[in-house]
Design goal:
208 residues, mainly alpha, 0% strand, single chain, 10 helices
Length: 208
C-alpha cells in the first residue's frame, strides 16, 4: 500500500493549485457489493484497537510493519512513519484526529480512481492491500493487534517528580536536593527466616 498511496498523494498535491475540480476530488458514488466489502475489510484491518475509527498511529504502525515485510530490518522506519503521518494529515484529518470509516472510504476510492477506473483492476489492488495488512498483523501480533480496552487497563506510568532536574538520579539531585529513592514507593523488608526447632536454644541443650 505504501508505494501506491504515496505516488497518488504526490499527484494530487501537484494538481491541487489549479482551482478546478480534480479527479481525486470528485464525489464518490456507490460501488459494487464486492469492492465495498473489500474496503470495509481493509478498514477493519487498519483499525488495530477495534474502536471503529482509524487513528494516525494505526496507519503509521501498520505500514511500518508492511515495510519491514518488504525490506526486512533495513526498512527506514522513521521515513515510513513520517510519510504516512503526512498522508493522514493531508488526506484524512489535518490535526491528526481519528476518522470514521466514511472518510477513509472516500480517500481510498479517490486513490483507486486515480490509479485505474476499471473496477476489476481496483479489486486486484485492494486484494493486495488486504493481503499485506493481514500478513503484517499475523507476523507482528503483539505490536499491532490490541483488544478494545487493553491500553486503558494498563497501569498508569509513575509520575515524574515535580521540578526534578536533568541530573535527577539515584543518590540525589544536585539541583533540588532530592533523592530518587524519596519518590519510589516503600518496599517492606522481608520477614526473618524461620529457625528450625533443633537449632533453638543451643546453650540450653548443651547444659542438659
Amino acid at each position: 500500500m505504501g508505494v501506491v498511496a504515496g505516488s497518488v498523494l504526490n499527484d494530487c498535491r501537484a494538481l491541487a493549485g489549479s482551482g478546478s475540480m480534480l479527479p481525486c476530488q470528485e464525489p464518490i458514488g456507490q460501488r459494487s457489493e464486492r469492492i465495498e466489502a473489500m474496503m470495509q475489510e481493509l478498514f477493519r484491518l487498519h483499525d488495530l484497537n477495534s474502536n471503529g475509527t482509524l487513528e494516525e498511529v494505526e496507519l503509521m504502525k501498520l505500514n511500518e510493519k508492511i515495510a519491514i515485510l518488504h525490506c526486512g530490518e533495513d526498512a527506514d522506519r522513521a521515513h515510513v512513519r513520517s510519510r504516512f503521518s503526512g498522508i493522514f494529515r493531508a488526506e484524512l484529518d489535518p490535526d491528526g484526529q481519528p476518522v470514521a470509516y466514511s472518510r477513509f472510504r472516500r480517500y481510498m476510492f479517490r486513490m483507486l480512481d486515480n490509479l485505474d477506473n476499471d473496477e476489476p483492476t481496483q479489486a486486484m489492488i485492494m486484494e493486495q492491500f488486504i493481503a499485506e495488512a493481514d500478513l503484517a498483523i499475523a507476523s507482528f501480533p503483539r505490536s499491532l493487534k490490541a483488544r478494545p480496552g487493553f491500553l486503558a487497563a494498563l497501569p498508569p506510568p509513575m509520575p515524574r517528580p515535580p521540578q526534578a532536574g536533568a541530573n535527577f538520579q539515584a543518590g540525589g539531585d544536585e539541583a533540588h536536593g532530592r533523592r530518587l529513592e524519596d519518590w519510589l514507593p516503600a518496599i517492606p523488608a522481608p520477614p526473618p527466616p524461620a529457625v528450625p526447632p533443633q537449632h533453638r536454644f543451643p546453650e540450653l541443650r548443651r547444659r542438659q
